[in-house]
Amino acid sequence: MSQTGSIPTVSIYGIPFSKLTMKETVEVLEQAVLSKQPHQIITANPIMVMAALENPAMMQVMQDAEMIVPDGTGVVWAANYCGEPVAERVPGFDLLHELLRVGENYRWGVYLLGSTSEVIQATADRLQQQYPAIRIVGYRDGFFGPAEDEQVVASIRQAAPDLLFVARGADTQEPWIHKYKHELQVPVTMGVGGSFDIISGKMKRAPKLFQKLRLEWFYRLLREPSRAGRMLALPKFALKVMRDKENVTKAR
């Protein structure tokens, strides 16, 4: 088992969420990079938990990951509500930056995959300016189909990054990473959703007040009303947890 095998977790509907703080998470992932073994890190929220409950293949992807961090406020609430609290919320956006900060000490290589060619180019430029000691060893947009997978995997392997960040939407990025994790041979691969949009400047992150009140999801809904359908998973998740309180954290 990987370096992450001994981390304390809480099971939420059979999905093992890390109980570590941001600082401890970064320390574990630093060791994971140094181990040179492939690790898939999933930053999960209630929408992904609900998707996994409806889709056995997605549940398998999540249960096979080396580490799942509680990205969503709803996950932190659920763990607390069921008496198995996690240390804190570990947002994927912040985790990406913390890993790059540590990576500067080692001159880690980073590969960026996903979003549009314009956004990925801007993201690469900005991260290189922000973390000059990091090596951006490659990037490409996320617009490719299964027929091109092998070619994409080969180019990433050739670039031999220490960190691979993938932004292709939760329903695509996690299964894709899971499928190619061992072929990619990247020590730490993490799905980062809309992070490149924010880093590139295409989208704004929620103001500090929304972050503090744990309402980043609400800010995104105000900005993108088209997300309303997906957001319905949040109240459904909360009601389900309240109804299942005694059984949420039991092994499945």
Descriptive notes:
It is a single chain. With 252 residues, this protein is an alpha/beta fold. It has helices at 22-35, 46-54, 56-64, 73-81, 92-106, 117-130, 149-159, 170-184, 195-199, 208-212, 216-223, 228-231, 233-243, and strands spanning 9-12, 15-18, 39-44, 67-70, 109-114, 135-140, 163-167, 188-191. Strands 4-3-8-7-5-6 form a six-stranded parallel β-sheet, with helices on both faces. A two-stranded antiparallel ribbon has the order 1-2. The chain is globular and about 50 Å long. The model has no long low-confidence stretch (mean pLDDT 92).
Compact description:
This is N-acetylglucosaminyldiphosphoundecaprenol N-acetyl-beta-D-mannosaminyltransferase. The chain is α/β, with parallel strands linked by helices and 252 residues long.
Helix/strand layout:
Blueprint: E1 9-12, E2 15-18, H1 22-35, E3 39-44, H2 46-54, H3 56-64, E4 67-70, H4 73-81, H5 92-106, E5 109-114, H6 117-130, E6 135-140, H7 149-159, E7 163-167, H8 170-184, E8 188-191, H9 195-199, H10 208-212, H11 216-223, H12 228-231, H13 233-243
Parallel strand pairs: 3-4, 3-8, 5-6, 5-7, 7-8
Antiparallel strand pairs: 1-2
Helix pairs in contact: 1-5, 2-3, 2-13, 3-8
> What low-confidence regions span 5 or more consecutive residues with pLDDT below 50?
none
Overall SS class: alpha/beta
Q: State the share of residues found in helices, binned by percent.
A: 40-55%
> What would the average pLDDT be, to the nearest integer?
92
Count helical runs. Answer: 13
Q: What's the number of extended β-strand segments?
A: 8
Radius of gyration: 17 Å
What shape does the CA trace take? globular
**Strand residue percentage:** 15-25%
Organism: Paenibacillus silvae
Family: Belongs to the glycosyltransferase 26 family. TagA/TarA subfamily.
Pfam families: Glyco_tran_WecG
EC number: 2.4.1.187
